[in-house]
Amino acid sequence: MTSVLTRPDRVPDRTPTRRHYVMCPPTHFAVEYAINPWMRPGTPVDRDLALAQWDALRRTYLGLGHEVTVVEPDPGLPDMVYAANAATVVDGRIYGARFRYPQRAPEAELFRKALVEVGPYTEPAFVNEGEGDFLVAGDVVLAGTGFRTDPRAHAEAARVLRRPVIGLELVDPRYYHLDTAVAVLSGQDIAYLPEAFTPRSRGVLAGRYPDAVLASPVDAAVLGLNAVSDGRHVVLPAAAAGLAAALRDRGYEPVGVDLSELLKGGGGPKCCTLEVRA
Predict the structure, then answer these.
(1) Each residue of 207-241: b (16+ CB within 10 Å) or e?
(2) Residue numbers annotated as active site
(3) How far is CA 97 from each of CA 53, 56, 63, 101, 111, rounded to the nearest angstrom?
(4) Cα–Cα–Cα angle for 178, 183, 188, nearest 5°?
(5) What is the pLDDT of residues 252-275, one digit of tens each?
(6) What is the pLDDT of residue 13?
(7) Whole-angstrom Cα distance, residue 72 to residue 68?
(8) Considering the entire predicted model, what is its pTM?
(9) In sequence order, what are the residues at sequence separation of 6 or more whose Cβ sits closer than 8 angstroms to the Cβ of residue 44?
């Protein structure tokens, strides 16, 4: 199966917008525990390679004209490289994270300190894992649940971020965060894996995004949907060749990167990238 899409009569012009990203280097990255199906404790990790791949991602963003703020990693937090999980920021309002697993819980406070100058910070009452499960798509927020984020956090996020929140339920444990099963390409355009969702959620997505790019299981399995878009350039795992071709047909410019070492922890480009919408 290849990526499927309904081509519009005319491929629209794609205009990129400058973004501000927060990242954290994998200086202490390791696979020491298993909190998702990708993680196998004891898996050898080439930390130098992980750092090189992460830095290539950072330099890709800089080369595209984006701003990157780097947060200092903590030696006791090997998953801190997955910065997207630490918060959701909309119009300078920060909805903080509350991690489901204790291994990652201290990350929330470290990122709060890093974001303190952006705007007001709301400490969440319910478990949520930041942009892992909250994807800003134009004037709405797509919100995942099923494995990590408490569904009660959806209403809390809507109140804090002042955006309508559309709940979506994940059913495949490989796609434990929404950002592994959905990529926001522009305000009104997404790519997603239908098989990752309940029938109800598939219906919601199909109704709202009838022309969405439907990713193949092959491309999703290399976390091809864990992508970052500026409205024109879509940074995604280089191994997701079918998805890249589908995006190109839509007028996007796919930019392939290799994050094979960080995939061992269940993350790709989006997991490593927290967007600051100030």
Answers:
(1) eebeebbbbbebbbebbbbbbbbbbbbbbbbebbb
(2) 177, 271
(3) 26, 27, 29, 12, 9
(4) 115
(5) 999 999 999 999 999 999 999 999
(6) 82
(7) 13
(8) 0.95
(9) none
